What we know:
This protein is an alpha+beta fold.
Amino acid sequence: MENNCPASQNAKWFAQVRTESESSWGGQPVQTGCCRNPVMSSDEDFSLVSEDNEATHLSKMKEIKMEIESLKVVHDRLVADKKDLRKASEDQLNLAEEYRKRSEKLRTAMNEEEQEQAAAMEEGKVKLEALQEEETRLKEELQRMEEELHLVDQQVLCLQEKAEVPTAVPEKNVVFTGTVREGAEASSGFHMESHIVYPMEGGTALISFEDPAVAQRILSLRQHEIHLGECYIRLEAKPFQVLVPSSVELATHVCPKSILVSEVPKDEEESRLLDRLEIHFSKRRNGGGEVDDAYVLNDSGHVVITFVEDTVAKGLGQRQFHEVDIDKHRVKQRVKVTPFLKGEITDLKMRSSVCKRTVLLTEIPAIMDPGDLQDQLEIYFQKTSNGGGEVDFIAYNPPGHRVLAVFEEDRIGLED
């Protein structure tokens, strides 16, 4: 393969000139150069240079020079390209570094965003669980309120049934006793009398004075010595306290199977009265049915009759008055039938009440007849010299006895 490089061509030319010179000068080497005047050796007086060879040499030198200049241009271009490549490489490195930094920043931002999203999802999950719990609680509350509403509806229905029974309470006979009220006391209404039963301990006495101030003097003295002939007894006076209801709540309902029979004869034997009423109200023609139970109320003397079926009592209550054959030899007795209301105490609050006119005497020994000792106590506490006053009533319970003191209308009675 032919080599067209200028340096190789110049080498070939120098080799050719040397060969020709050696052949011209008898095989002796001739020194050549790139200048116009060849260098002469010290042993030679002159040198022969061909004009054609010189022209060729100059031409070659010119071509070499031009080639060198061309190579310089190429070299400069290469240097410039190298600078451009180095700059481009630096730019690429800077761009890569900037891209790396941006990628790192973007990665950090994405991680933070993922963490925020995870936190937001966790918070949303917690809120969702809280809302679900709240929904469950509200559903339970709604169900409870619905149950309470259903219970209230039942109570309203029960109250409506009670309201439809205006004669549920048996009638009472009343009489005007001549007492009148004026001013602020002249208000209408019902009056409920107190009925308090107090169990007295043995060796105690209850004494009530007409004036509350006398009771307070007796209490202030506290210790009292009562001379009974050759001996005496020492008593202690204490305030009398009793528990009384301050608030009572009753739950009443109409018994669907029972009726209350009032205005029955009081002089009739109880067993016979119950039998005649059961016979009457067990007959279908009288609107009755099979009787399950019948008994007399001790406090009022009214009769409660309970049927097996729950449809009988309502029909009898609507009729109200019935003619019952209590005694075959007498005229039929007219009795009154009303629905039987049954009540239960749902709430009872008690409070302690001090009787202002009553004093409790304790530590009373049994040294004489109970009646005589009670008279001696009354005599002692009636004397003003002993701090006493007018005695309204006195009750003495000797040791070993059980007595119930009944308080009614601000008076004291006894029940053995």
